[in-house]
């Protein structure tokens, strides 16, 4: 699985990348902001995109809108420090599959594993 991870914090990218790459069949590609994620998605053809909510140049929700417009079937997840019901509702309207707290990065990996098992069944 090709995962495109966009976060302006190298700390959070490294943390999540380490968690996701525990699965040997998963390759993680990185972007520093939403604009870079949209550009890179064209040549990476990711199976899933994980976007930080707050990034310079293009934030996670705006990047998600652009990605879903270009690739409607692409699963997009949002990561944030401050997960709220309002954000979850806004993300759903954008077509985002799920919103996760950065404090619970392991949940992202487990969510993706469950999703892959469901698709394989």
What's the short version?
With 121 residues, this protein is an alpha/beta fold. Helix content is 49%, strand content 20%.
Word description of this protein:
The chain is α/β, with parallel strands linked by helices and 121 residues long. The chain contains five helices and five strands, in the order βαβαβαβαβα. β1, α1 (10-20) and β2 (27-31) form a beta-alpha-beta unit. The mean pLDDT is 93.
How would you describe this structure in keywords?
121 residues; alpha/beta; 20% strand
The 3D shape can be described as globular
* Number of H/I helices: 5
- Termini, distance in Å? 17 Å
Q: Report the portion of residues in β strands.
A: 15-25%
Query: What do the pLDDT scores average to?
Result: 93
The quaternary state of the protein chains shown equals single chain
> What's the helix-strand series?
EHEHEHEHEH
Main sheet characteristics:
5 strands, parallel
Strand order of the largest sheet: 2-1-3-4-5
Helical content stands at 40-55%
The radius of gyration computed from the alpha-carbon positions, rounded to a whole number of angstroms, is: 13 Å
Question: Count of DSSP E strands?
Answer: 5
Helix and strand layout, with pairings?
Layout: E1 2-6, H1 10-20, E2 27-31, H2 34-44, E3 48-52, H3 60-70, E4 76-80, H4 85-94, E5 98-101, H5 105-120
Parallel strand pairs: 1-2, 1-3, 3-4, 4-5
């Amino acid at each position: 699985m090709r995962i495109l991870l966009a976060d302006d914090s190298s700390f959070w990218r490294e943390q999540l990348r380490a968690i996701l790459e525990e699965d040997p069949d998963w390759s993680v590609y990185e972007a520093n902001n939403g604009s870079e994620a949209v550009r890179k998605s064209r040549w990476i053809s990711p199976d899933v995109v994980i976007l930080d909510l707050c990034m310079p140049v293009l934030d996670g929700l705006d990047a998600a809108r652009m990605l879903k417009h270009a690739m409607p079937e692409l699963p997009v997840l949002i990561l944030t420090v401050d997960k709220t019901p309002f954000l979850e509702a806004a993300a759903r309207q954008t077509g985002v599959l799920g919103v996760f707290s950065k404090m619970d990065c392991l949940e992202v990996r487990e969510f993706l594993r469950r999703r892959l098992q469901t698709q394989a069944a």
